[in-house]
Amino acid sequence: MRRIVILGGGYAGLHAFSVLRSRLGSLVARGEVELTLVSRDGHHTYHGWTGEVLAGDLAVGSTLTPIGPIVGDSFVEGEVVSADLPGRTLTVQSAGAMRELKFEHLVIAAGSVDPFDRIPGLAENGWCVKNSRDMQKLVGELESRDASAQETRNVVVVGGGLAGVETASALAARYGRAGSAKVNVHLVSSSEKLLPSLRPDFDHIAETAERQLVSQGVQIHQGVRVSRIDRDHVELANGRTVASDLSVVAAGVSFSVLPGTESLPRNAAGQIIASDDLRVRGSHNIWVAGDIAAVPHPGTGEPCPANALFAMKQGDCVGRNISRAIKGQSVKGFNFRGLGQAAGLAGRRGITELWGMQFTGRLAWVIRVLFFAWFMPSRRGALSVLSHLSGNLWGAAAGPVAGTRAAPGAERPAAVPNLSGPFR
Ligand SMILES: Cc1cc2nc3c(=O)[nH]c(=O)nc-3n(C[C@H](O)[C@H](O)[C@H](O)COP(=O)(O)OP(=O)(O)OC[C@H]3O[C@@H](n4cnc5c(N)ncnc54)[C@H](O)[C@@H]3O)c2cc1C
After folding, report:
1. Which domains, and CATH codes, for the chain?
2. What is the pTM of this model?
């Protein structure tokens, strides 16, 4: 029996699983190969709709896809607490008990974590959007503030990349619509200019996004780091403070080190260094993909961007290579170069770069929504999101989305992820 274990049920892990199942299905059926995917979350979180969720246009449930129906009996819901790499064993805490998972091939696709280690006060006083539980808490807080008319005067968003810009635009739209007292939305970016990943090649769309934020009243603080988040303000590294009733961090990522994996090679950011075939450098049976992997870009040799598309493509590549290795074939290098980047802005607008072409406004939003829906792990989930967003777009009665904004006192349907369906 040859055992393959995938650590992580995000983009990279699910794609690796999907490819392995389709390529090794007959060996699995004959009991010659065992596939296991272990993840602490029972669902996959799709981050592409963060802006829409924060603006109140989509429910948090719309971003969640249960893993069980996709992976079936191969799924172990649990926390990997340590690894014994020479002994080829993971220790997993699952359903209150410890169990061991043996592997011949291990795929590490554990993603990244919010930068609690780099922003003092974030854990105690800040709000995060990466983890679905944190997102759920933040949306609950926004809704309870709406319902109780609790005064929110100042909101600070930390992060001048695509996620931070989306978050600031969405929150400005949410408070702009509320019709209550004016809320000051601040965006703090450590880079000298917003959206550094688009510059200088795509300055046009980066400037368009910045203009839209300004027109929404967002106050932008550029070229300065947040040095501390406090209960009612944030401190900036230049000595200034900004009053804040709600500080939301959509900035940068950190990487936790699983006990037992300290010997793996890492770069300065903490990512595990991969060879171009996505094996961990110096290993022949440990593979790495997604945010946690420093994978050389086939064009530049620099680490690939940490985004969902690269995570999916790396997961696919790992799946193909493990299947080749098991069949005694030679493995291949990762050769995906990227498609583009996008951010949603308020008012069904956006910026999109696709194959080097730049789009703005409603067209950019439509391209982004269609692309993102295509890459969702469930067709049913994608259709549900498209139906709600197109309903909102044309003003049609698409029906209430569980967990989206409702008038205070209105009956609210339960927030249940309604997704199943096959994984591509
Ligand atoms: C707010 C926000 C918006 C974003 N928007 C976009 C966007 O618009 N477009 C885009 O391309 N990218 C976007 N990204 C980036 C994208 O989400 C990440 O690049 C992507 O999640 C990386 O996928 P992954 O599979 O490496 O990790 P994840 O998707 O983070 O998955 C990691 C998995 O590992 C599991 N795990 C980790 N440690 C353990 C453990 N010890 N035991 C068990 N399970 C474990 C986790 O539970 C999770 O299932 C956004 C990110 C954020 C935070």
Report:
1. 2-40+78-112+255-326 (3.50.50.60), 122-253+339-394 (3.50.50.60)
2. 0.90
